[in-house]
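Duplicate of #3305? Posting structure anyway:
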């Protein structure tokens, strides 16, 4: 019976490389030589070098977390607050939107309701605020009101409503685009028919809304 030689089957392993792999420190492992060179060129101390390595690892993990969270959110398009035309909507206070972007209202279990006719930027702001929530570390899911109610009705008919509600509750922030639904009240009533409870994120019989944000008319056709 033929046997492979030991040298042919085993490859010497760098202990540090193996430890970094075991600790799942991929960024440090992939960039170790260049990071150490950078630290040497900058005359960094051992402590400062360790800080540099940790910063690069955290940056890699944050980037991947955000990238994955954006995919899971199922946003209809990429929208950012920087791209919103506040001049076209003078009724909106940019300071209020920046305050909402800090996502404190999510931690407080509050809702934000964007009011206005079609084409004034409600979806743009909703998606942009959802993106800011992801950057802040929250999980987010986007859906339309019609899709949400239809999904609940289907789950109810298939006797798996609890499973559906559990799936919806996993996201810290649920962004619901009313779309063709006539009003928030109509959507809330339809939601209650199937959910048997108030919408996620509310703390009392009626949703807690810090302050509804009203958007006026606009000639823009690319936003909803």
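Output from current build:
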């Amino acid at each position: 019976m033929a046997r492979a030689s030991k040298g042919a089957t085993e490859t010497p392993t760098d202990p540090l490389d193996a430890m970094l792999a075991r600790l799942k420190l991929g960024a440090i492992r992939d960039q170790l030589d260049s990071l150490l060179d950078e630290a040497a060129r900058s005359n960094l101390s051992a402590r400062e070098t360790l800080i540099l390595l940790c910063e690069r690892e955290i940056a890699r993990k944050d980037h991947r977390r955000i990238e994955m969270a954006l995919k899971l959110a199922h946003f209809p398009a990429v929208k950012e607050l920087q791209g919103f035309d506040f001049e076209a909507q003078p009724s909106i206070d940019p300071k209020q939107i920046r305050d909402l972007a800090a996502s404190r209202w999510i931690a407080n279990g509050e809702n934000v309701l964007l009011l206005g006719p079609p084409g004034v930027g409600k979806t743009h702001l909703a998606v942009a605020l959802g993106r800011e929530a992801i950057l802040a570390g929250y999980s987010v899911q986007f859906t339309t009101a019609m899709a949400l109610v239809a999904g609940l009705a289907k789950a109810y008919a298939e006797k798996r409503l609890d499973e559906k509600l559990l799936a919806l509750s996993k996201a810290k922030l649920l962004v619901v685009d009313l779309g063709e639904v006539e009003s928030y009240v109509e959507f809330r009533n339809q939601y209650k028919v199937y959910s048997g409870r108030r919408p996620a994120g509310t703390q009392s019989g009626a949703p807690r809304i810090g302050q509804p944000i009203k958007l006026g008319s606009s000639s823009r056709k690319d936003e909803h």
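Confirmed duplicate; merging threads. The chain has two domains: 14-64, 81-214. The domain at 81-214 is CATH 3.40.50.300 (Rossmann fold).
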